[in-house]
Every structure is written in structure tokens, then in C-alpha cells.
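Posting this for the archive.
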Amino acid sequence: MVVLMSISFTLATHRFRRNIVRLPWPLNRLTGFNAFWYSHHLLGFVYVLLLVHGTFLFLAHSWAQKTTWLYISIPLLLYLGERSLRACRSEYYSVEILKVSVLPGNVFSLVMLKPRGFKYRSGQYIFLQCPAISQFEWHPFSITSAPGDEYLSVHIRTVGDWTRELKCVFTDHVNSKPLPGRAKLGHLVKMERESQPRLLVDGPYGAPAQDYQNYDVLLLVGLGIGATPFVSILKDLLNNTKTMEEHTPTGSTTETTRSEDSSNSFGSLNTTPSGKRKFQSRTGTGQAQAYFYWVTREAGSLEWFKGVMDEVAEMDRKGQIELHNYLTSVYDESDARSTLITMVQALNHAKHGVDILSGTRARTHFARPEWKEVFGRIASKHAYKTVGVFYCGMPLLAKELNALSLEFTRKTATRFEFHKEYF
């Protein structure tokens, strides 16, 4: 048991799991996600040996004292039940691929026909399995489509062997025609159903970002591909606002709740008669304020969600959402080396309303955001409000955002609650 658990532990360490350790052939197969994944199935043999160990106890002679099987059987039955449920559900949720978009920065998007009866909330994630690659491997990906959409979409970055093979399966297939370009989800193009490989879906599963509806104001921070759960949230906010406006009769008056802070037009979370929670503003428009900060290293990454950004900008006629793109691979805006491009960019954005780098209406800034200024601006604008801070990315920035949330909660009249999700 100790030997098998030591093998599982070693292959699960960061250097082995991330394929950082370079070993000669054939020992190179002991690194990477596959080695980590399959080595953990050795724990099944550990349970068998534990039963053997518990049966041949030297100090216990009565069968009633040998209770190892009792403590193992209950969690084992629960585990087998969960795996059986996943297998049945994934077969039922076998999806049809509608569109494949190949994007810069080793990213591609899959747009799938939403399975019948599949319900989820923005911010949640799903597991995908492609039997053509492996019958056992399931990998999690955040959902980038909104719950009200007729399709299901994910954006996948090829960082491992499984994701690379998945991209090849759907882009190098003989009869499939992927669509290189921008992932604008408004126009769906069907692929040939008979020739495309099977793709199974399991989920949805909960994530911290799904609780965005509990807050008056949202601060969404995505690092690189970590922006994926927030794209769904932005679209869902706009879809909900649009639905509420359509169901509000023209000229009708709604009761509003007044407070001392009459200058703040964004309100709190109310409950409908059916028990479903929704955002209710003090002006009766049902809007919720959201600030989205997307920090990326490469300019090509801005192409990932260009279509989505344009859709958000087109639908958001009332300034419900603020979009901020930050490019960290160039000099700071105050640096003399980037002054010229900053001026040209500002003039073009002021004249045409389009950013030069991203090609969207969201202005692209250089270097990293001044997070203390961001928190200070939100705190002064939304006094006596609760701001939900949601972060998805690397752990280093999470510590800084968590510290600032605690600091501004203590020093200002605005409450910041921090939630993190690591990629």
C-alpha cells in the first residue's frame, strides 16, 4: 500500500503532472497528465490490499472486531454509484458539434447543440470526453455560452497532450471543415453529423463564479484563458436585462425602493413570486453593474472573445457593463516608448469607437491594472453596496485581490467579497 501510494503521490506532483521533468525514452511516459491520471487508479489496488490487511489482523481474533470492510464498503458504494450516474448521464448528453473556431494562441472553441434537458448557470463548468482519444479521460472546461442560448460553447487552450489531440480530431478530420477566425457565437454553421467524432458531456458542476447573482455589483477579473466563465456571466446579465425590458409594458410604473444614497442607481437582489432570484435596480430597470477586467500577455489573445465583446458592446446600450482589456507584454502607458501608439489608439477610439489592438469597442490598456485604483473607484461609486469580486487565473494575483478586498472592506463603506478559481 505504501509503495502504490508513493507512486501516485510522486506522479501527481507539479513537475511530473505538468511534464516539466524531462526523462529519456521510454521513461518519458512517466510524466504528463496521462501518467498522473492512470497512476491514481492504483488506489483501487490499495483498497484491495487494505481489505486483506484488515482481514489478517494479528491482535483481533473475532470476526466482529475485523470491521475494515464496513468502513470501506460505504464510501466505495457511493463512489461506484456516482461513476455509474456519470456514465449514464454522459451517454444521454452526447452532443452534436455545430462549429469549430481555431483562434490565435493555441486556443479553439467548440459550439455544441445543447442536449435536451441540460440546464446550467453561468460560471459553471462541464467535463468533456472524446472516446476517439480515450475511453477514460474526462477534462473540465468552463461554459462560455449563456443559459438562455440554444447552444453550448467552450473555449479550450491546447496545453497538454489530450487537448492537442482533441484539436486535431476536430480540425484535421477529413470530412469536417473547421472555421478559422473569430469566435463569434451569433452565427452557427453545422458540421457533418455522420463523420464527426463523438463527444460526451458530463455536468454541469458548480464553481465560485455561479454565485454572481447574490451581489449588487460585480468585479470580474480574468487572467488569460481564465476569462471563460465571465463571458457567460456577461451575456447572461444582458439577456436577463433584455428579457425584463420586453416584459415591462411601455408607460407602466414600477414601485421603487428609495434610500439615502439616491445617487446610486443600482440596487439589490430581489426574489420573484416564483422564488427565482433576479437583479432589481432602484430605477426599476432590473440592471446590475459589472466591471470586467481581462488581463492577457499576447495581443493575439484578444481575438479569443472578439465576437463576444462586440456582442456585449452592441447589446449594452445603457452602460450596464464596463469592459477593460489589459495587455502586459508591452510597456506601460506612461512609458515614452509607448506614447505614440497610446495617442493613436486614443484618437482612433474617440473617433471611431473601435480599439486598434483588439478591434472591439473595449479599450485596450498597456501593462497591468492598478488594482488599488480600481477598487477605490468602485468603492467610491458604489458606497454601502456589496461587491462580488470573482477571479479566475493564476494563484499569485489572487492573493493581491483578496488582500485589497479585505482592505477596502475595512476602510470604506463598500463591502468586497472575494471568490477565486484557479486554472
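The longest strand covers residues 289-296. The two ends are 31 Å apart (CA to CA).
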